[in-house]
Amino acid sequence: MTWRPTALNLSLLALAGWALFLGVLAGRADLIVVAVPPLVALVMGRRVSRPPALRADHAVSADRLVEDERVTVAVTLWADQAGLVEVLEPLPPGVRLESGGNHAFFLLPQGRPVRWEYTVRCAGRRRVRFGGLHVRRWGPLGLVATEGWTRPWRPVAVYPRLAPLKHLPRPLRTQTFVGNYVSPAQGEGIEPGDIRPFVPGDQVRHVNWRATLRLGALHVTQHHRERNADVVLLLDTLSEVGPSGETVVDAAARGATALAAAYLARKDRVGLIEYGGQLRWVRPGAGPAQFQRLADALLDASVVFTYVTRDLELIPRRVLPPQALVLALSPLLDARFVRAATDLAARGFDLVVIAVSPVAPARAAARPGRVTDVAARLWALERRAALDDLRRRGLTIVEWDGVAPLDTALATLRRPRLRRVLAG
Amino acid sequence: MMRLVAAALLLAAAAFPFAVYPAAPVTWLVLAALLAGGAGVALLSGPLVTAGGALALIAHAVALLIARAAIDPVGATTLGVTLTLLLLLVHFAGRVDGAVLGPGVLISQVRDWLVVAGVGVVAAGVLTAGGAALAGGLGGVTVPVMIAAAVLGAALTAAGVAALVAAREDPMSGR
Fold first, then answer.
1. How far apart are CA A320 and CA A66, in angstroms?
2. CB contact under 8 A, A142 and B95
3. With a CB-CB cutoff of 8 Å, which residues 99-158 of chain B face chain A?
4. For residues A229 and A324, is the Cβ–Cβ distance under 8 A?
5. A contacts of B104 (beta carbons < 8 Å)
6. Do residues A86 and A100 touch, judged by C-beta distance below 8 A?
7. I want to staple B102 with a disulfide (CB 3.0 to 4.6 A). Which of A106, A142, A163, A229 is the partner?
8. Dist CA A415 CA A167 (whole Å)
């Protein structure tokens, strides 16, 4: 760090120069006297010693947040010389100042720390990386300054806010682990099933006394097992529309996070496939750790442009189990994703497509006006026709505008009950 | 608050030529100085305030020439201090505009400015006294000295204007 002269030098020089020039031109000594105070300021302001050593420490109140949550940023500064210090921390996109200021001036005492705090609100799903601290030490009167900056700090993860979901699509097939779904298979459980004659080995508590009295022989009630299911979230990151932070991918990721949380709460195993320029996945798993893995993967989900079409057949069976319920979240804008979804349905996967409407985000990004309104309405009509066509081709599609609660959209979905599917 | 103080300093600087010669050419120059300086104060722009200060100085020189006023070292010192404080204040206000000010920052700046003003007054007084003492003895050699001073003033002005025009934008100013 070295001292550099500031623009104030030039202002004072110009003023002193004019005073001297006019004094000589007019032949008046009192105009030359006018030049003395600015020249004195110039001399006094340049009396500086070596540049000071500055140290900055940065702390954020939380490194994992939910969107629209507030976080307090605390900066501690030390210097080996007393003086005026200016600090600026540029705010990353999507971060709004809530209280305090990210630009401050301090009179730093020698060897003693000064703590500075401000609060920001983080909007939208993203990893927020505070852009490093710019520190400027001002010399006397602001005539010289020295600058330095620190590297960006550790990122803060801002997760989507979880919306409660009550109307989750029921999986048509269950797995082998204990869960919340009534399985068609008979066994230990609390859901009563068929009645059959008693055979040695049956437990007495399963005897159906009403049927026994009516039929004159011992009969027992069979029960259905409660099992869990595998759910795979298929996120389309091939295309996106909308303003930054409110794109269809953001809406889809927000929905996927809510779905993951809801299914994991039902003891299901949930996995994720990000179908885009990068084909990334998270193997199905259960529990809070799995939710964290999914939330982190969804946080990084973004559009990576590519012409390459990746086939879902490349995905290992352990990532996309044949018995899994596949929930595809997509704006259905890219033909490659539509083809992949149709292919999955044709291969017998239990597939539900949650079609995130791109119309509203595109409208928000466009200039408002009558033409935009008409174009949006035409696009919505075209889209409805395209979705109807896909439904006729056997896809189960739920329309979601990305703004209204996802639960409202899912409530419109009618799915056959598990036992009826197996019976049919 | 800092804008108000700067506006008061600008008005004070503009009042000097008026006090000497409150008539036509000076009025226009003072008006131009107030416009440029006022814009600088409103926008907290150092270059505009410098231009306003320079125009006020030119107006003062014109007023002194037209009115053939007597030499007034006290008035000149006051004008110099006023213009210097105006520049220091506007530059500082421009830097801190929109920023959080820690405790004691403003007080320390005011203290520094007052010290500069005090030293400026003393230096101007010493220069005036020295000039008055030397005036009698060195009356015959004033022409080359004045030519040298004129060359210095012109060079400083040219350098100042060139550097003001070429001044790079402050990355931390936020504007």
1. 29
2. yes
3. 99-105, 108-109, 112-113, 115-117, 119-121, 123-124, 127-128, 131, 146-147, 149-150, 152-158
4. yes
5. 107
6. no
7. A106
8. 11
What CA–CA distance (Å, rounded) separates A143 from B92?
10
Give the pLDDT confidence score for residue B150 in this predicted structure: 65
Q: B137 pLDDT band (50/70/90 cuts)?
A: low
Q: CA-based angle A297:A260:A333, to the nearest 5? A: 70
Average pLDDT over residues B29-56: 91
pLDDT above 60 for B175:
no
Does B74 lie at the interface with A, CB-CB under 8 angstroms? no
Opening angle at CA B73, ends B72 and B75, nearest 5? 70
Picking from B91, B103, B160, the nearest residue to A14 by CB comes out as B160
Tell me which residue of B100, B162, B122, B5 sits closest to A105, measured CA to CA: B100
Q: Is A34 helix (H, G, I), strand (E, B) or coil?
A: helix
The tokens describing A235, both together, are 């996120």
3-class secondary-structure state, position A52: coil
Mean predicted confidence (pLDDT) in B58-76 = 86
A48 burial (CB, 10 Å; 0-12 / 13-18 / 19+) is middle
CA distance A144 to A137: 9
Indicate yes or no: CB of A31 within 8 angstroms of CB of B50. Answer: no
Q: Given CB atoms, is A74 within the 8 Å cutoff of chain B? A: no
Distance CA B159, CA A10 (A): 8
A8/B contact by beta carbon, under 8 A: yes
Say how far apart CA B96 and CA B90 lie, in whole Å: 10
Cβ pair A141:B123 closer than 8 A: no
Query: DSSP secondary-structure letter at A207?
Result: B
Among A319, A320, A310, which Cα is nearest to A350's?
Answer: A320
Partner A, chain B 6-25, Cβ-Cβ below 8 Å: none
| Whether the predicted pLDDT of B145 surpasses 90 | no
Contact A15 B167 (CB under 8 A): no
The alpha carbon of residue B139 is apart from the nearest alpha carbon of chain A, in Å, by 13
pLDDT digits (tens, 9 = 90+) for B110-122: 998 999 899 989 9
For residue B80, give the amino acid letter. Answer: G
Q: Which homologous superfamily is A54-135+149-159 in?
A: Immunoglobulins (2.60.40.10)
Q: What is the CATH architecture assignment of A230-423?
A: 3-Layer(aba) Sandwich (3.40)
With a CB cutoff of 8 Å and minimum separation 6, the contacts of A141 are A8, A41, A44, A45, B88, B112, B113, B116
Q: Name the residue among B121, B156, B159 with its Cβ closest to that of A20.
A: B156
Query: Order of strands, edge to edge, in the sheet holding A134-138?
Result: A4-5, A144-149, A134-138, A83-88, A103-108, B100-101
- How many angstroms separate the CA atoms of A330 and A246, rounded? 14
Q: Which 8-state DSSP code applies to residue A314? A: G
Q: Which residues of chain A have pLDDT under 70?
A: 1, 48-49, 131, 309, 416-424
